[in-house]
Predict the 3D structure of the following.
Amino acid sequence: MNDDRLIIRGSPGSPYTRKMLAALRYRQIPYRYHQSPDPALPEPKVRLIPVVYLPDATGARQPEVDSTPIIRRLEHDYPHRQIIPENPVVGLLNALLEDYGDEWLTKAMFHYRWYYAEDIELAGAVLPHYADVTQTDETLQAMKQIFSERQINRLYVVGSNDTTAPVIEASYQRCLEALNAHLKHQPFLLGSRPASSDFAFYGQLTQLAQFDPTPSRLTRQLYPRIHAWVSKCEDLSGLEPDPDGFLTAKPTSASLKAIFTEVGRTYVPVMLANAEAVDLGQLEVKTKVDGLPWIQTPFPYQAKCLHWLRQEYAGLDETERDQVGAVINGTGCERLFLKPTPQRVTEDTKHGSD
Ligand SMILES: N[C@@H](CCC(=O)N[C@@H](CS)C(=O)NCC(=O)O)C(=O)O
């Protein structure tokens, strides 16, 4: 039998896998979910999950990693129930929020999981089972040790350290506050239907709000609405989207602006400082976030993300830029687009976030 369902390989503990799966479910795209490698399928060049196997020009399945471009390719291949708003202004706002979810919220996710003893203990105990629940207790115990040590040693990748811990944690809490206030008015970030940015937030929050003890306790206690939102977003296959469900080009809601204010306060200075450090070949990113020091190893993939966002902004006409400005001016996000300097774009990709 010819099975042309899409194949996705990933793991329940991977926020980007959860992002991709939820997007596929909402989009009603038939898929097969593999939770371990299939020797019959090629491995991607960059060893990340999720891996989505997409047909090339000859119909052969090719492994692709990186949820953001994969989502855009699927918009083209399956033109129903789309999650990239057609309006270029709302599209840009969505791209920015998606990137914040993928590249900033993931710092909180990885930080909480591998920084505190209680969280390390749970992740270390549970995650190795995802490869195979029938492994012996001895093997699982050995995996716990190896995997935890490896991940703790990689905290530097997302910029989690003793200096940045207070910034990351305060930012997670403010993000929840802003999201909670926004969800009082509308079910999704950009209207009454979900966009790719919702799935980006959802992916990270499957772990932060529902798995890792420290951040999930906080989320459950203070923001039950967000806990529920995450559960609802898991399977939106039955939601009938209103064709006009995305915000119009002039989204004016104060609660949306508050989310962008949070983005501008944390993600923006770090993305700008990181891109500059990558561009200048520096060994350290050093900046201030919210008046507090931020130090991390440069992350070339995130410089590439900034480049993509600037490219999208550069494609807007004058009126559209003014409309974007009406939402983001004064939030700090406008700084991303002040000086579209050419970036040195490298071929690496990000890694290390589950
Ligand atoms: N930008 C990628 C990020 C994917 C990513 O970082 N995946 C993590 C798991 S959530 C990973 O595979 N890390 C490498 C590892 O754990 O070995 C995406 O959006 O898909």
Notes: Strands lie at 6-9, 31-34, 51-55, 61-65, 285-289, 292-296. The chain has two domains: 6-77, 88-337. The pocket of glutathione is lined by residues 14-16, 48-49, 65-68, 102, 350-354 (CB under 6 Å).
